[in-house]
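assembly run, all chains below
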Amino acid sequence: MNIHEFQARRIFASHGIPVPDAEVATTPDEAAAAAERFGGRVVVKAQIHAGGRGKAGGVKLAASPAEARINAEQILGMKIKDIEVRRVLVAPAEEIASEAYVGIVLDRARQADTIMVSSEGGVDIEEVAATMPEAIRKLAVDPRYGLLNHQATLLGHHLYDDPRAARQAASILGKLYEAYLASGATLAEINPLIVNPAGEVKAIDAKMNIDDNALFRLPDIAALRDLEAENPAEVRAREAELSYIQLDGNVGCCVNGAGLAMATMDLVKYYGGEPANFLDIGGSSNPDKVVTALELMTEDPGVTSILFNIFGGITRCDDVANGIVEATSRMELRVPITIRLTGTNEEEGVAILAEHGFEAMIDMDRAVETAVRRGN
Ligand code: GDP
Ligand code: MN
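ok done. output:
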């Protein structure tokens, strides 16, 4: 789950990280009023689930409430990476002497939470990572001990020559790690971490991703979900208890089981197609899930071919067949559908489909190849 900067800022601040005050505004008037309260010189920032706002014009400095109003007029309603901005954050503008990067990410390859720091922070951090990876120092945290003081101190000194700044950074890293653990995060990032002319180190941006699987035990964090900021198809899928991730390809895939779904996507690519989604209907046989799955794929304008790949175990092929028949009677199929069924109640499933004019295949390779060809 993604959360907004203003939410991540509150979490960081609650763990003692120095974060300047901020207010959220949904109209230019509110932004001007907030700027007034902050003494006029502010930064106005788009609140969306995407990075790179600075480069896209979604972060603007203002010298007065009147300018803050103009900035908010420009930023509210603009689209950044196809996402409409509905809220801005208004915060006192900081004077910046230097910008660094600090982040913690769950690194699945290392099987560890990994801290990354770089003195080359700011809006070009992706380029730094690509062109001079040696400028980013990494440390895998041993979960048995957590982040140890001497490790944090070393990282602080990697960031700053000034020992005062290094000490502040070390303390901030410890708090960031606490915030990351307490929130069930898979990412916690401050970019930029600034030093101001007075030598104070502060976080002026905040980003967190939360592990969906941690939300059941963290109701306060779960409540931060902004449904309006999420992909509507993915929200609907979650409500129907489908695992669904929209992708850019053209072959809509409806599969039972995450492993088979991954294998199906691999095979789609192997036969020259591109999967339009990852969709796991799970182990149940609920026809409503099949209906929702078909609706989601049909409504995706990129989909030119639909593939069902069902391996009946707990899921029964006849139930899925009934779901397909029911769904297609409720809606107009605008693209060809290819169905592969095998396993529990396979004969019944194939018979039900045949009765309604659908051919079902048993062989996975043949089905995937056919679905890819029909989509071209
Ligand atoms: P992002 O581009 O989405 O990561 O948004 P950021 O919040 O990181 O802002 C982008 C850039 O805007 C920062 O790297 C800073 O250079 C600049 N910026 C943001 N807030 C302030 C501020 O309070 N004062 C000044 N001088 N610059 C700021
Ligand atoms: Mn940033």
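Residues 191, 205 surround manganese (II) ion (ligand 2) (CB under 6 Å).

The mean pLDDT is 95.

not gonna interpret more than that til we talk
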